[in-house]
Structures are given as structure tokens and as C-alpha cells.
Amino acid sequence: MQDKLELLYRTITNLIKKSEAPVFAVLDFDNTCIVNDITEATLAYMVRNNLFRDKNLLGSKFKDAEEETYSKAVFENYYKLLDGGKTKEAYEFVSKILSGFSIDEISLLVERVIKFEGENMTITELFGRKIAKGIRPREQITELIGFLKNNGVEVWIISASPEMLVCGAMKHFNIEANLIGIRNTVVGGKVTSGLEKPLSIYEGKVDCIKKFINPKKRPLLGVGDSMNDMPMLEYCEIKAVVDRQNSLAEKARQNNWFLI
After folding, report:
1. Paired residues of 34 in beta bridges
2. What pTM did the predictor assign?
3. Domain 2-35+137-259: what homologous superfamily?
4. Which residues does 19 contact at the CB level (< 8 Å), separation at least 6?
5. Is the pLDDT of residue 2 over 90?
6. What is the pLDDT of residues 153-163, one digit of tens each?
7. 99-132: buried (b, 16+ CB within 10 Å) or exposed (e) per residue?
8. What span, in angstroms and rounded, lies between the C-alpha atoms of 28 and 229?
9. Domain extents for the chain?
């Protein structure tokens, strides 16, 4: 593994020398910069504690439902979408769970979620579904971020999670980088279920790179962990994948991309 990382660093260094400024890299966040997923951890925490403010996430059917019933329905709807292969729809749906919170409240919520999760990676169960528990930074990625910054590369996190959640997690774990995530509209100091476009999901990650970073220049490096990152990686000069033994890792092996 160390040999692979050294080769990746050398490849990055060589390409930097040949590149004209600005030089930038893009990384996914959940399961890439950290182990596990800040949004799924927040969803589980909100479900356990019945914290949902917006009673319209599932339409009028559950508007008058008791808190526990509603929380369970929100949780099950997210995973039903995932199980059905509707990943984009699932990410859009779960990005709305912060509706009704203020920005300050979300910052406190993230801290509580991370404290509850702890850094011990385990599996727990909620409503009969086994889910991951525990959140911690992925050391090889944080070291890579430091290497990139020390070599004059702008680092951007491009996440399919709500930007406010990722921002809170980045602050907690001292991950310093620019950030683009799913952006909820804010009205009167409160987060709403409205989402600003482009959405940083699948091909939307490339749209966000072009809109918010550089409309013409490709990233020097892209790092991801799932097929959601595939369009972003294909758009990058150097492609690196966190090896989670999934379909993207297999794709990386087939294409001789870097595996971390």
C-alpha cells in the first residue's frame, strides 16, 4: 500500500510540473475523507431521537403521524430508495431532513452526531436494518490533502451530502479544504427542503466543478469511493479510488487507476 501511495505522490508531482495554474484536486467526502457517512449517521440519530421538524418530507400521508411513526417512515423511505437502485433520488430525499433547523442548530447537531457515533467502527441495528456506526477521518486521505496543499494544489471536497453537515464534520476533524455539497435554500434563517442546482450527485459533480471551480480546466486529481463518483473521476487527469471492495474498486482495477 505504501508503494502505491508513493507512486501516486510521484505521479501527482510530475503532473504538477507540467500543469499551468490554477491546479486543483477534487475529493468525495463520505467513505472517502472519512470512514462511513455523516448524512446516514445524522439520519439515524434524528430517527432515534425523533428530531424531524418538517412533517412534509413524505407528503400529506404522514403529516399527522406520531413522531416515532414519522421518523421510522423517513428512515425506511431513504433505504427503500437505495435498495431499489434509486440512489440519486435517495440522496435528494435525505438532503431534506434538515428542513426547519437553523444553521447554528445544525452545527450543534453535527457535534452530537459525531459524539454519539464515536470512532469505534461497528455495526448496529435500527428498525431491523443493520447500519454502520462510528465516524473517523481516513488518515491516508488527510495526509494526501496535506501533500496536495503543500505542493500548491487547491483542494476541493465535492460531496453528495448536505453541505452544512459536511462542513460541520470537516471542522470537527480539522479537514481543511474548499467545499461543494448539496445546498439547501435558507429562508428567514431556517433551512428549507428546497435544493439549489446543480446538485453534486453523479454527473452533477462535474457540473459543480465547471460552475464553481473552473469552467474549462480539468482537476489534476480525483478521489472517490463509489459509483456516484464515477463521472467526477472520469473528468480528472489522475484517478484514485478508496478500495472498499465494491464496483468502483473493480472498475479501478480494470482501468489501472490508483487504489488507496
Report:
1. 137
2. 0.96
3. HAD superfamily/HAD-like (3.40.50.1000)
4. 220
5. no
6. 999 999 999 99
7. bbbeeeebbebbeebbeebeeeeeeeebeeeebb
8. 7
9. 2-35+137-259, 38-133
